[in-house]
Amino acid sequence: MAQIKTVDLTKTFPDAAGGVTALDRLNLTIPDGEFFALLGPSGCGKTTLLRTLAGLEAPTGGAVHIGEADVTNTPPGKRGVAMVFQDYALFPHMTVTDNIAYPLRVRGVPKPRQREAVLAAASELGLTGTASTAGLLDRRPGALSGGQQQRVALARATAANPSVFLFDEPLSNLDARLRLEARTFLKRLQRELATTTVFVTHDQAEALALADRIAVMQSGRIRQLGTPREVYRRPANTFVASFIGSTPMNLLEGIVRDGCVLVADSEIALPDGTVGRVAEGAEVVLGARPEYFRVSPDPVAGAFGGTVAVVENLGSSLLLTLDVAGTAVQAVVSEEEEPEPGAALWALPRQDRTLLYADG
Ligand code: ADP
Ligand code: MG
């Protein structure tokens, strides 16, 4: 059990252009026991941060603390961390048992104690005890399904009884259904073990579902840090706004006029809490999640008025793309609404859920 802290953590990789800054003076405190997600697009520095916490990568500047100790110059094996990689990194020539026992063997844990820890972890991870998993412990990774390999990698991490788990996109090689199962499983496991966890993903749904708190990264920096609810409800900037949400937030350029935002000929009420705080004539970006619209075939004041351009079936709901004077506005509506492409439609965003940005 341990808190993680980084102080001005920086990592620059040399390249032809004089260096890529993968981590840019990161200051981060992750309390003991937290499930912390690092979310961001490919190349933003997630893996580099994880590898730096693990000690697999030396920082160019700054420090890493785990628990009370400054571990910046401590080798990986002495940091009390266990890492699970995207491709699981199991040893192909070793049995499942030997794979799980590996970190214990390296540490010189006595054989009988290794055996105990392997069995406990394997049983915790559902690798023993059922007909379908009988004999699994004696197999080599090549003879396991993707889901089973993933559990072996998790078992190896838990058997070592680390004070910190570092997960680098551990679910991304599983198919959609298994991935959801594994997600729930992982959340339960982390709750039970209460081990401080840093979970890297580029999948916003995964981060929202799993994490106590999420850091959204871009170009080696943290653009927002908050609970899933905070980053979903109140994205701090348009980057975060566009990254979080299963259907992307509408981000619409407009001008403040008479207490409204004028967007593509439609006058939309200013978001709650912004009235009187933005200057008349200011150029802004209005953020409106597709999930928070009401639609009507008849004109509604304060709504986007347009025509239905595209109707996409999402299963329990429909995603509409409206053409509003040449600007696309998306709204999710109930499957009972049956808007036809080409029909006129008014879409009213919920004023308590719209947001205003000046960083468009
Ligand atoms: P992510 O995991 O978010 O996709 P990475 O941490 O792998 O991002 O990479 C961050 C940046 O650092 C990228 O620009 C990447 O090209 C660069 N980078 C990562 N590892 C190395 C390396 N070993 N040598 C040079 N550049 C690297
Ligand atoms: Mg990565």
From TrEMBL:
One Pfam family, short name: ABC_tran
- Report the domain of life of the source organism: Bacteria
Task: Kindly state which keywords UniProt assigns to this record, in alphabetical order.
Answer: ATP-binding, Cell membrane, Membrane, Nucleotide-binding, Translocase, Transport
User: What Gene3D superfamilies does the entry give?
Assistant: 2.40.50.100, Nucleic acid-binding proteins (2.40.50.140), P-loop containing nucleotide triphosphate hydrolases (3.40.50.300)
Q: Which GO terms describe its molecular function?
A: ATP binding
Q: Which residues form the ABC transporter domain?
A: 4-244
Task: Tell me the PROSITE patterns matching this sequence.
Answer: ABC_TRANSPORTER_1 (PS00211), ABC_TRANSPORTER_2 (PS50893)
* InterPro entries referenced in this protein's UniProt entry, alphabetically: AAA+_ATPase, ABC_transporter-like_ATP-bd, ABC_transporter-like_CS, ABC_transpr_MalK-like, ABC_transpr_MalK/UgpC-like, Mo/tungstate-bd_C_term_dom, NA-bd_OB-fold, OB_MalK-like
Q: What is this protein called?
A: ABC transporter ATP-binding protein
Organism placement in taxonomy: Bacteria, Bacillati, Actinomycetota, Actinomycetes, Catenulisporales
